[in-house]
Design a protein that fits this description.
The protein has 395 residues and is mostly beta strands. It has one helix at residues 87-94; strands at 2-9, 12-19, 47-53, 100-105, 108-113, 138-143, 158-160, 165-166, 216-218, 224-226, 242-246, 251-254, 256-258, 268-270, 275-277, 301-303, 315-322, 325-334. It contains 1 helix and 18 strands. Strand 7 and strand 8 (165-166) form a beta hairpin. It is globular and about 55 Å long. It starts with a strand and ends in a 61-residue tail after the last strand.
Length: 395
């Protein structure tokens, strides 16, 4: 569904192109067939106009998820912040409204977006996240017919129909050790083992990440991104909810699926991942942070085959519907339990999602955040444009 979004900023009016998709939309984008490939349906070219009046930006309506108790070792335990801005209010404040465009060229699904979500968001900067949301230049391609061998996902798993990227992992590590990488949704206050052997890890692991009601926050380059299920994309009651595309071309759904994966008449249930915490305690001293496996680190978790509804990549094969078209295909789920966002691909991801030197996945170096004059500026901060891969001196 092609839209032209008219933005009003005082006396100025801007016109930009936009395609919007939803779980129950009428867009006829190619879909997966029974063999996991994609049909040759062409995109719907219908159009309408949405007007954003900056004198009337609407009212926030997205509820803030309730954190689980610390004794619940399977779910998140961060305290998400309330969303306080509508998408229109955010767009008016930064001068750029949400944009998302999806089209098909040969065996490629072309996706361009500016990273400005089409749902309510939290206030940024906030006490635990000092960064401001800014428009991005995302240009992704995903296969129309996924193929090839799967692999672990790195920083960006895929992109949502909101134009916001899914980033399951973090750049933060215990004492810069990649064997102990912090899990974004499993900590709040820094535990005692950060001070093991007289050292302190509070720089790399602050007391909070400042995620909003969508379990999202902002990189130094201004990119707003999800670490969990974006509440703003969920319907008010359980429904099969298509939320985006993985880098390998398979569709991504949120939370609910059919009890029988191949029967659309079966009950919709909240699907469970097949991961569990390891038993015992972590190694300590120079080889590890010590303490029990409580979920603080990615390495605290292990895949337990058939213990849940989903495979190691948080997916399964079955009947789903994307943009109103029914299909039988492999597909992924975002879950309330680890891994929250999948950590591996069923097929080969497109190279457009591979981390580039700036970590912005656009094929070009991003601009530096305020006060940073180079990609590796020696400030000891490793996130956004600076990552352990490209700023080893810093990180």
């Amino acid at each position: 569904m092609r839209r032209h979004l008219k933005q009003r900023f005082g006396m100025a009016t801007m016109l930009v192109g936009l395609i919007g998709f939803s779980a129950c939309g009428d867009s006829k984008s190619p879909i997966a067939g029974s063999d996991g490939g994609l049909n040759d349906a062409s995109a719907n070219d219908d159009s309408d106009t949405t007007v954003v009046d900056c004198d009337d930006v609407g009212t926030v309506s997205t509820a803030t998820p309730t954190p689980q108790s610390s004794s619940d070792t399977s779910n998140f335990n961060v305290q998400p912040l309330a969303c306080e801005l509508t998408s229109a209010a955010l767009g008016c404040s930064i001068g750029t409204q949400h944009q998302y465009l999806e089209s098909i060229s040969g065996n490629k699904r072309l996706i361009t977006a500016n990273g400005i979500p089409n749902h309510d968001v939290g206030e940024f900067p906030n006490n635990d996240n000092p960064n401001t949301i800014a428009a991005q230049s995302y240009n992704f391609e995903v296969p129309v017919s996924p193929s090839g061998k799967g692999e672990d996902s790195e920083l960006t798993f895929g992109i949502a129909i909101s134009g916001v990227v899914f980033e399951p992992g973090t750049a933060e590590m215990w004492r810069d050790n990649p064997d102990w990488r912090y899990e974004a949704l499993r900590y709040a206050d820094a535990p005692d083992y950060f001070q093991v052997n007289g050292g302190s890890d509070t720089t790399m692991h602050p007391n909070g990440l400042g995620v909003d009601c969508n379990f999202a926050h902002v990189q130094p380059d201004g990119s707003y991104h999800y670490h969990g299920i974006p509440t703003g994309l969920l319907p008010s009651s359980p429904a099969l909810t298509f939320v985006g595309w993985a880098a390998d071309g398979y569709p991504v759904f949120a939370k609910w699926g059919y009890e029988d994966a191949n029967d659309v008449q079966s009950n919709l249930i909240e699907l469970k991942s097949s991961y569990a915490l390891k038993n015992g305690t972590r190694p300590s001293g120079s080889s590890g942070p010590g303490g029990s496996y409580d979920g603080t680190f990615v390495q605290d978790w292990q895949y337990a085959e058939d213990s849940g509804d989903l495979d190691e990549c948080n997916g399964r094969t079955g009947v789903v519907s994307v943009n109103g078209e029914q299909m039988t295909t492999y597909h992924y789920y975002l879950t309330e339990t680890f891994p929250y966002i999948p950590r591996c691909y069923h097929a080969s991801p497109d190279d457009s999602f591979a981390p580039d030197p700036g970590g912005n996945n656009t094929g070009q170096l991003p601009s530096c955040p305020p006060g940073q004059t180079s990609m590796c500026c020696g400030d000891g901060y490793c996130a956004g444009p600076e990552t352990p891969m490209n700023c080893s001196a810093d990180c």
